Amino acid sequence: MELFSLFVVIITTILVVRVLYVISQSSKPIRNTCQKHLSTLVVLGSGGHTAEMLNLLSIIQKDRFAPRFYIAASTDDMSLQKARVFEETLDDEVSLQGSICTQFMQIYRSREVGQSYITSIGTTLYALIHALWLMLKTRPQVIMCNGPGTCIPICAIAFVFKVLGIRWSYIFYVESIARVKRLSLSGLLLYKLRMADQLYVQWPQLQKQYPRAHYVGRLM
């Protein structure tokens, strides 16, 4: 019994140290890499999130953040359709790459609008299992999200992967332009739990309220 208790203490200590290490590495720039491309998982969402994310993608180095994996909620076909149109409108070189490498996937929602919190426990667990499968399938080096609740299970699994040394995925969270005074629930969770490597806000008052966030001005 004493040996088992000692084993538990050692494992717990290792996990705590590893979690603290992962947190300490957040907010640091992407490590230098000779890789030309960084596989990128893009989380889409309804209510304007997809439009903002596609606007953001239009100004980044698309050949650098490739291949791209688009993920939306299982009930959000419109977002994936918009992403497909976006990829088709890229220039010839990127479009050719996208036609080969870009993938579009869906994930179960943790909680539907109006769903009770009690019943959402089961759906959240199911969403986490689905997120685990998607993360194992895509193994992204970068995760980009901007507010939809769909991103939470994915970011949670990515954080666990970091702690366990399975995969280091950089999580970049860009808060919606609509959030002027307070972070969204997704942004607040990623901020408080320190799961996001970089969290950006588009209003200076938000950065003052959440000092670990980075103010970048209006991106949209």
3D structure, described in words:
48% of the residues lie in helices and 14% in strands. The chain has a seven-stranded parallel sheet with strand order 3-2-1-4-5-6-7, with helices on both faces. It is globular, with a radius of gyration of 18 Å. α1 packs across α6 (151-164) and α5 packs across α6. The longest helix is centred in the first third of the chain and has 24 residues, at 2-25. It starts with a helix and ends in a 5-residue tail after the last strand. It has 220 residues and is an alpha/beta fold. It has one domain (36-215): Glycogen Phosphorylase B (Rossmann fold, 3-Layer(aba) Sandwich), CATH 3.40.50.2000.
Q: What CATH architecture label applies?
A: 3-Layer(aba) Sandwich
The computed structural class is alpha/beta
Mean pLDDT: 86
At the fourth CATH level, what is the homologous superfamily? Glycogen Phosphorylase B
In one word, what is the shape?
globular
Q: What is the helical fraction, as a range of percent?
A: 40-55%
CATH class: Alpha Beta
Radius of gyration: 18 Å
What is the number of beta strands?
Answer: 7
Per DSSP, the total helix count is 8
| Secondary-structure element order, N to C | HEHEHHEHEHEHEHE
End-to-end Cα distance: 59 Å
